[in-house]
């Protein structure tokens, strides 16, 4: 396939960026989207030009690094797919593809298509863990957890922290991400001891990072590559209200 790429180029977070047009030729439909970008960068290097910076790591849909906005959609046109799992057969010969970074004040652009998502790390550091000593690893059958609860906790834990929810939300809200991390631990007995301080601290850090408020539009869940449910936001709201109603922290 021969394609026209309209790629966002930006030297660093302190400079203005712009869309630059590139042509790529003889692209195999079996290539992944990132492999197609590799071809583009090889062409640019041969011409002595600066390659396009973009984030990637595992290229297996696990790490959440491949955060690209493709033709106006997070991770591209295929639902339930990360950019690295998106194949070029989803496009047609002669297509024009617009490629941009995540757009959110809390995700500043490092360079070109690479953004700083360390705000997510700081939210996790605020409380997305179990810090108490739970002893040795018990046999799985020794902790009676109903399968329905275990399944919901597992589904919340599948969040890869890619930021597609933020990029897709008109308010740049991180509620789906934060709610998945809160729900994962709030549903399990290991997380109950710190559940109140956890949700208070994580929501406070989310607000501090500058993410917008949730208005339940649902675009976050629609574009999430692993299908995190909006039900987690309901769990987060419930946990937060319970924590505030019984907390000694009046801030």
TrEMBL record:
GO biological process, alphabetically ordered: aerobic respiration; respiratory electron transport chain
InterPro entries (alphabetical): 2Fe-2S_ferredoxin-like_sf (IPR036010), 2Fe2S_fd_BS (IPR006058), 4Fe4S_Fe-S-bd (IPR017896), Beta-grasp_dom_sf (IPR012675), Helical_ferredxn (IPR009051), SDH/FRD_Iron-Sulfur (IPR050573), Succ_DH/fum_Rdtase_N (IPR025192)
Cofactor: [3Fe-4S] cluster; [2Fe-2S] cluster
Pfam families linked: Fer2_3, Fer4_8
Domain 4Fe-4S ferredoxin-type: 150-180
Record-level Gene Ontology MF annotations: 2 iron, 2 sulfur cluster binding; electron transfer activity
TM helices/strands, residue ranges: none
Classification via PROSITE patterns: 2FE2S_FER_1 (PS00197), 4FE4S_FER_2 (PS51379)
NCBIfam families hit by this protein: PRK07570.1
PANTHER family associated with the record: SUCCINATE DEHYDROGENASE (PTHR11921:SF41), SUCCINATE DEHYDROGENASE IRON-SULFUR PROTEIN (PTHR11921)
Family: Belongs to the succinate dehydrogenase/fumarate reductase iron-sulfur protein family.
Name recorded for this polypeptide: Succinate dehydrogenase/fumarate reductase iron-sulfur subunit
Organism: Hymenobacter rigui
């Amino acid at each position: 396939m021969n394609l026209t790429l309209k790629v966002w180029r930006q030297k660093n977070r302190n400079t203005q960026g712009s869309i630059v047009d590139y042509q790529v030729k003889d692209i195999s439909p079996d290539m992944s989207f990132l492999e197609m970008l590799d071809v583009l960068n090889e062409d640019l290097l041969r011409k002595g030009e600066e390659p396009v910076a973009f984030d990637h790591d595992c290229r297996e849909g696990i790490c959440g690094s491949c955060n690209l906005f493709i033709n106006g959609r997070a991770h591209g046109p295929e639902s339930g797919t990360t950019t690295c799992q998106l194949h070029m057969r989803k496009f047609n010969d002669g297509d024009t593809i617009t490629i941009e970074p995540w757009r959110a004040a809390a995700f500043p652009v490092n360079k070109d298509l690479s953004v700083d998502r360390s705000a997510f790390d700081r939210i996790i550091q605020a409380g997305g863990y179990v810090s108490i000593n739970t002893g040795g690893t018990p046999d799985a059958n020794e902790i009676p957890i109903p399968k329905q609860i275990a399944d919901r906790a597992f589904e919340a834990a599948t969040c890869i922290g890619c930021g597609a929810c933020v990029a897709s939300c008109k308010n740049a809200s991180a509620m789906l991400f934060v709610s998945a991390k809160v729900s994962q631990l709030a549903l399990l007995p290991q997380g109950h001891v710190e559940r109140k301080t956890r949700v208070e601290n994580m929501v406070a850090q989310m607000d501090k990072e500058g993410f917008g408020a949730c208005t339940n539009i649902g675009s976050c869940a629609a574009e999430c590559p692993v299908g995190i449910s909006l039900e987690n936001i309901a769990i987060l709201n419930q946990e937060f209200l319970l924590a505030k109603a019984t907390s000694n922290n009046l801030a």
